[in-house]
Amino acid sequence: MANSDNNRRKFMATTLQSVGLTALGGLLWSGYSDEVKAAPLVLRPPGALPEEDFLKACIKCGLCAEACVNRESNKNRDGSKRPGTLQMAKGGDHVMIGTPFFKPVEVPCYMCDDIPCVPVCPSGALDMPSLLNETEELDINKARMGLAVVHKESCIAFWGIQCDACYRACPLLDEAITLEYAKNERTGKHAFLLPVVHSDVCTGCGLCEKACVTEEPAIFVLPIEYSTGKAGSHYVKGWDKKDQERIKDAKEIHTQTERSEKEAADYLNMEVEY
Ligand code: SF4
Ligand code: SF4
Ligand code: SF4
């Protein structure tokens, strides 16, 4: 009897331990997945597949980050080694653990000509063909890691203070970012020189974000899906020949009503007595 009591107690203790561990595991897992869900704004290395596909493809080997850390040009002006751009996410980073990402405000992507982080990727999570130019060479200008966005209220150039730190830091100066002239109506005699980012050229490297002089950067990189809108295919630009092509076979639809039989001028002159 004592033996069977002991066995029952042991069984209950083991069961409760398993339940406890399962619950703890569940809590940890839900905490972890909440952490990942809460971090949709992560920036990935050049050539990364769209986020969902990237997460499925990346085998978390860290070769991209290693290539980034060890690249020869990874030096500060004084010759000292600077930290790599790519980090491998760990607990607390709010990014899927073991995947590569970067934070421009800490270390931006220096847009290396040979893009050492990409050819080493064994899984295709970093898609090399997407970075090839017309002559089949790797071209970092084709990278779309994100898109820089200017927050007008905190950018001091929009206050009328002269600042072009972001513009000067951009490796694609006058292409990805331009300074646009505008009259300062407040003073009447000064001009604004305003930074404008061009989404068809900006690579999302974040060198502008790193260079911004404000307390929190007034220019910052967001993943493309969070920094762009979408007009919809039913809008056609009348001044764009290529866009016009889309509707060249569209049938004209005429709606005939009693009203449309009359000329517009008939309405204009209605009830007007001369
Ligand atoms: S291209 Fe950017 S992410 Fe890739 S190795 Fe160079 S600095 Fe690192
Ligand atoms: S090299 Fe490719 S598979 Fe490996 S961690 Fe980087 S992105 Fe993921
Ligand atoms: S992120 Fe900034 S620095 Fe980099 S290409 Fe775009 S505008 Fe230029």
UniProtKB/TrEMBL annotation:
* Domain 4Fe-4S ferredoxin-type: start-end pairs: 48-78, 98-131, 193-224
The name this protein goes by in its record: Ferredoxin-type protein NapG
Q: Which InterPro entries match?
A: 4Fe4S_Fe-S-bd, MauM_NapG, TAT_signal
UniProt xrefs under NCBIfam families: mauM_napG, PRK09476.1
Q: Which UniProt keywords apply?
A: 4Fe-4S, Electron transport, Iron, Iron-sulfur, Metal-binding, Repeat, Transport
CDD domains reported for this sequence: DMSOR_beta_like (cd16373)
Molecular function via GO: 4 iron, 4 sulfur cluster binding
Q: In the UniProt record, does the keyword Amino-acid biosynthesis occur?
A: no
